[in-house]
Amino acid sequence: MASEIDQGAAQRGPTSVLLLVATRKGAWLYHGDATRQHWWVEGPHFLGHIINHLVLDPRDGRTLLAAAKTGHLGPTVFRSTDLGRSWQEAARPPAFAPAPEGQGGRSVDHTFWLTPGHADQPGVWYAGTSPQGLFRSEDGGVSWAPFSPINDDPQYRKWMGTVQDGTPDGPKLHSIIVDPRDAEHLYFAMSGGGVHESGDGGRSFAPLLSGIEVVEGFDGSDPTFHDPHCVRLCPTNPDRLYQQNHCGIYRLDRPSDTWQRIGRAMPAEVGDIGFPMVVHPRDANAVWVFPMDGTSVWPRTSPGGKPAVYGTRDGGESWQRLDAGLPAEQAWWTVKRQAMTADSADPVGLYFGTTSGELWMSGDEGRQWTCIAAHLPEIYAVEAAMGVEGAS
User: Fold this and answer.
1) Structural domain that includes position 48
2) Could you tell me which residues come within 8 angstroms of residue 91 by beta carbon, excluding any fewer than 6 positions away?
3) Residue 342 forms part of a structural domain
4) What is the CB neighbour count within 10 angstroms for residue 288?
5) Rounded to 5 degrees, what are φ and ψ at 156?
6) What is the pLDDT of residues 201-226, one digit of tens each?
7) Among 93, 94, 97, 113, which residue's Cα sits nearest to residue 105?
């Protein structure tokens, strides 16, 4: 059965799944019922603003943070404590410390990534920016301060490179991960600059790069040349991480510090290059990716104009093409690193947003896909939440 979108309030029912959709021109909230076949939409919020990430705080189920950028306000963070009915701008958004006199400083172009802190640290949030910076809030996103010495550390600054060294829309710090077992155990990734780990609450970080390939001709021992696109930790096995990288798909099983390239099992004509990665909420062996064309000039479109999700059920030993319901040809879009997610239902619902403004869903873990929204602006991020109180 095809999904239905309701624009009017009269037929709205209780929300079982909430999708938070961030785009190049604003944000939308899609509320789904228990069947995930009927949806109603709320928005736009911040129409015309660039929204890089929109995240719900799982610790209270009501607080939303939006990483925003506007022509007249510049980069900022907005906060809502009532599921988007009202918003307040952060009193002190993420900003680099002033540079010493006579030295060149950096300014935040945009906040790119938002991560709620540990369950035992209510009010703590982390933010990653472009250019690469790591920030923390201890008051629920009202005020932000540089976090950890990496922002100004000479070695990390070297690894971060310059703006010209980064991705087409600027270098980024992303994939901020808090170990659910230990608030002191943190990970983050930089494009470029590699994956890094802290065991002391952020007082120090160390590169975690062994086994990761880099573009031919560059030195793999230098974090500068590493470009992780997305890193995910397994909810049911926090000792396992997966990574979608500029140079393939990888898995890491701690205590090892060496990544294994598991994308070699992908079809050769498709390859293992892409941006997003989603991990099953209950099965550490189940992962989904969305490959893109990474050949020659990097078109950053679906290979051959035939989009498909690929999934593994054995930790990357084998992959299955999951394209039922997706366009069979002439679909020249891709999915960005934050624009693919999963809910925690059984079976798991998968969702992704495209660079052409379509929102797709599967209620059966990728076996069948349905487009539940079209004609949105370019989608930058999609997050899913369940059991949201007061969302109807």
Assistant:
1) 2-94+107-386
2) 142, 143
3) yes
4) 25
5) -65, -40
6) 999 999 999 999 998 888 888 899 99
7) 97
Q: What is residue 367's predicted lDDT score, i.e. its pLDDT?
A: 96
The total of structural domains in the chain comes to: 1
How many Å separate Cα 72 from the centre of its chain? 26
Number of residues in the chain: 392
Residue 44, preceding peptide bond in cis (omega within 30° of 0)? yes
d(CA 383, CA 231): 15
Q: Do the Cβ atoms of 229 and 294 come closer than 8 Å?
A: no
Residue type, 347: P
d(CA 98, CA 105): 6
Give the model's pLDDT for residue 9. Answer: 40
335 occurs within a structural domain:
yes
Q: Are strands 38-45 and 4-6 parallel, antiparallel or unpaired?
A: parallel
- Residues in the chain with pLDDT < 50? 1-2, 8-10, 392
The pair of three-digit structure tokens given for residue 34, joined into one six-digit string: 């228990």
- Could you tell me the pTM of the whole model? 0.94
Residue with tokens 């989009």: 307
CATH number at residue 124: 2.130.10.10
CB-count burial class (<10 Å; 0-12, 13-18, 19+) for 366: buried
Q: How many contiguous H segments (helices) and E segments (strands) does the chain have?
A: 1, 29
**pLDDT digits over 58-108, tens only?**
999 999 999 999 877 789 999 999 999 999 999 999 999 987 777 778 999
Residue 360 domain flag: yes
Residue 122, amino acid? P
What SS3 class is residue 39? strand
Within a domain: 101: no
Q: With contact defined as beta carbons under 8 Å apart, do 131 and 166 qualify? A: yes
Rounded CA-CA distance 367/159 in Å is 41
Q: Which of 298, 300, 381 is nearest to 128 (CA)?
A: 381
Q: How far is CA 194 from CA 114, 171, 229, 346, in A?
A: 18, 12, 9, 34
What are the residues facing 240 on neighbouring strands? 253
In sequence order, which residues have a C-beta less than 8 Å from that of residue 104 and are 6 or more positions away?
A: none
Count of alpha carbons within 13 Å of 139, Cβ hemisphere only?
8
Preceding omega of 98 cis (within 30 degrees of 0): no
